[in-house]
Amino acid sequence: MLPVGALSLGSLLAGTALTNVLLAVTAGEYMTSEELRSCLSAAVIASIVFPFLPPHYGVELTPNSLVVLGNRRREIAWRDIIGLEIRKTAGIRTVIVAVSDGRRIVLRAPMSLLDRRFDHKIQVLTDWWVAGRGGSGGL
């Protein structure tokens, strides 16, 4: 589950984006009070609904594979993963999965930004990888 701060920030961003789209529709004309009320109502509704939408990015851990969730679902067998790396960019840590065919897949989640449990999640991911490979490994 995401921290409340991340949900609030996401809700604010979604509401702001929706407000800007609705303002663009008016094509630079002054808004009537009814249009303004509709615009603000849409922003408030988006701010309330956004935190309850299902997460878009993440990973699922299964006994046989790491499932990467995003725009599409990808399964990577544990036996095909040759390494897990942590990359730090601008103070934000992300996970890179090195695959035996040479690919390096950057996971969009977990990421250390606004996630106090990042280190724990990395440890769980590493434990599953080691168990799935049936041997030793690590970051």
Q: Which keywords apply here?
A:
single chain, 139 residues, alpha+beta, three-stranded antiparallel beta sheet, 6 strands, elongated
Count of extended strands: 6
Helical element count?
Answer: 3
| Helix proportion | 25-40%
Distance between the termini: 24 Å
Low-confidence stretches: none
Mean pLDDT: 78
Q: Structural class from helices and strands?
A: alpha+beta
Strand order, biggest sheet?
A: 1-2-3
The major pleated sheet works out as: 3 strands, antiparallel
What is the beta-strand fraction?
25-35%
Shape: elongated
Taken in chain order, the helices and strands follow as HHEEEEEEH
User: What's the gyration radius in Å?
Assistant: 20 Å
Write a compact overview of the structure shown.
The protein is an alpha+beta fold and 139 residues long. 40% of the residues lie in helices and 27% in strands.
Question: Can you give a write-up of this model?
Answer:
The protein has helices at 4-25, 33-49, 118-133, and strands at residues 58-61, 65-69, 74-77, 81-89, 92-99, 104-111. The protein has 139 residues and is of the alpha+beta class. The strands form two sheets. Strands 1-2-3 form a three-stranded antiparallel beta sheet, with helices on one face. Strands 4-5-6 form a three-stranded antiparallel beta sheet, covered by helices on one side. Strand 2 (65-69) and strand 3 (74-77) form a beta hairpin.
